[in-house]
């Protein structure tokens, strides 16, 4: 049975094709502690790419409120149910990935995706038409204790919580849509790892809609083809950040390129946050796709919930983020300030005195101070008899 190395789950795994990594891999980091769910990213993408007939339900970029929001409805809950028991032993995933749940022998030609039927051999489900009708399902719905007029939060992990989760195509190393397409109309570009659908070759078998666990391959009934996020490659080819990155008001999105762990470069911003500091983590790594969008976990949500989303590195990532907030990680602080300070992708950064400097292919494209002046107010205001949630 063919196997591929998946560093995110700490082991080899079964996959329908041989391992074939691109020359470099398109990647992103999102800081969930700064997302305000203004949906500017969603509209920037919508008005650029999915405003035609047949795309009304499509949001290649969307922002969900967790734990109750999802688009399409229940995409992650339903996928977790399909996957069954998922257990980690340290940093090694002991459960089955979506390609291993049915114990398929991918060496057998009868099981190969080009012969059809692969959608029955992997975990997945097909959303119904109604599932796409509620892009703001669960928005700002809280989880935890009941809120009263005297509720206030003294700890970073809140007893009443929710957090925002912006999502785009992860341009996975082992993409479920590409691994499942029976006509091989989906492919990864060798030059940057962006996952694309060849619309001329697409036969609308809809296997990609079912086999993408993140539900980012979507059917266009007017064109009778499937479509998906293209990573704004016309912009990234010129060194510019994608539309949703450039328009992000919260400045949470960093675009660049990621190396494998044994080839990590600490001057590469994505490598630095993912490999060296282990601060940014993949979304549902247990699915087995090695997604290339990474998230800095929100510090206000419970660790057990975040571990389900981002794997076993959550606790250390939160501690590192807290250390950054306390001024103990100036490199991280400077790099996170660089996010959103330039329209360019960042392929390198450095600390220059009290400033962080960003580069694209050797050219300086951004420079920001590591620290900015702040004022801190008391948590409790005696004159107003109220507790403040935001004190800086």
- In terms of DSSP E residues, the strand content is 15-25%
Strands side by side in the biggest sheet: 14-3-16-15
What coarse outline follows from CA principal-axis ratios? globular
Give the termini separation: 56 Å
Oligomer: single chain
The figure for the number of domains is: 1
- Segments where pLDDT lies below 50 for 5+ residues? none
The name of the CATH architecture is: 2-Layer Sandwich
Radius of gyration: 21 Å
Sheet with most strands: 4 strands, mixed
CATH topology: Alpha-Beta Plaits
Structural class: alpha+beta
DSSP helix count?
10
Provide mean pLDDT, rounded.
93
CATH class: Alpha Beta
Organism: Halobiforma nitratireducens JCM 10879
InterPro entries: 4Fe4S_Fe-S-bd
Subcellular location: Cell envelope
Cofactor: [4Fe-4S] cluster; [3Fe-4S] cluster
Plain-language structure description:
The protein has helices at 40-49, 75-83, 176-180, 207-211, 233-236, 243-246, 269-276, 303-310, 314-325, 330-338; strands spanning 3-6, 11-14, 25-31, 62-66, 88-89, 92-93, 143-144, 160-161, 163-167, 186-188, 195-197, 217-220, 225-228, 253-258, 281-282, 293-296, 348-352, 355-360, 363-369, 380-381, 386-387. It has 392 residues and is an alpha+beta fold. The protein contains ten helices and 21 strands. It has one domain (3-319): 2-Layer Sandwich (Alpha-Beta Plaits), CATH 3.30.70. Helices cover 19% and strands 21% of the residues. A hairpin with a 2-residue loop joins strand 18 (355-360) and strand 19. The relative contact order is 0.16. The chain has a four-stranded mixed β-sheet. It has a three-stranded antiparallel β-sheet with strand order 17-18-19, with helices on one face. Strands 1-2 form a two-stranded antiparallel ribbon. The longest helix is centred in the last third of the chain and has 12 residues, at 314-325.
């Amino acid at each position: 049975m063919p196997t591929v190395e998946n560093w995110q789950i700490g082991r080899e795994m079964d996959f329908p094709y041989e391992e074939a990594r691109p020359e470099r891999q398109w990647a992103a980091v999102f800081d969930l502690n700064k997302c305000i769910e203004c949906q500017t990213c969603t509209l920037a993408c919508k008005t650029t790419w999915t405003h035609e007939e047949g795309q009304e339900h499509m949001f290649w970029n969307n922002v969900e409120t967790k734990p109750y929001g999802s688009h399409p409805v229940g995409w992650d809950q339903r996928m977790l149910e399909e996957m069954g028991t998922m257990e980690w032993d340290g940093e090694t995933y002991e459960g089955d990935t979506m390609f291993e749940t049915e114990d398929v022998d991918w060496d057998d030609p009868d099981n190969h995706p080009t012969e059809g039927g692969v959608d029955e051999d992997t975990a997945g489900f097909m959303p119904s038409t109604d599932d796409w009708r509620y892009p703001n399902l669960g928005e700002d719905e809280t989880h935890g204790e009941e809120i009263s007029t005297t509720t206030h939060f003294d700890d970073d992990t809140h007893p009443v919580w929710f957090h925002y989760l912006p999502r785009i195509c992860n341009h996975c190393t082992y993409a479920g849509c590409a691994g499942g397409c029976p006509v091989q109309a989906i492919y990864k570009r060798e030059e940057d790892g962006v996952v694309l659908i060849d619309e001329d070759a697409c036969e609308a078998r809809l296997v990609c809609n079912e086999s993408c666990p993140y539900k980012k391959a979507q059917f266009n009934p007017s064109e009778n083809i499937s479509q998906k996020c293209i990573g704004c490659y016309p912009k990234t080819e010129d060194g510019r950040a994608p539309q949703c990155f450039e328009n992000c008001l919260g400045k949470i999105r960093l675009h660049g390129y990621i190396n494998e762990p044994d080839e990590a470069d600490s001057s590469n911003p994505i490598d630095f946050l993912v490999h060296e500091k282990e601060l940014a983590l993949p979304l549902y790594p247990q699915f087995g796709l090695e997604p290339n969008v990474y998230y800095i976990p929100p510090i206000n949500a419970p660790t057990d919930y975040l571990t389900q989303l981002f794997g076993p590195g959550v606790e250390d990532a939160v501690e590192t983020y807290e250390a950054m907030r306390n001024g103990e990680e100036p490199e991280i602080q400077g790099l996170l300030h660089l996010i959103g300070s330039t329209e360019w992708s960042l392929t390198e950064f450095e600390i220059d005195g009290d400033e962080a400097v960003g580069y694209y292919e050797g050219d300086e494209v951004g420079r920001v101070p590591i620290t900015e002046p702040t004022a801190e107010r008391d948590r409790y205001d005696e004159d107003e008899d109220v507790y403040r949630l935001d004190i800086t």
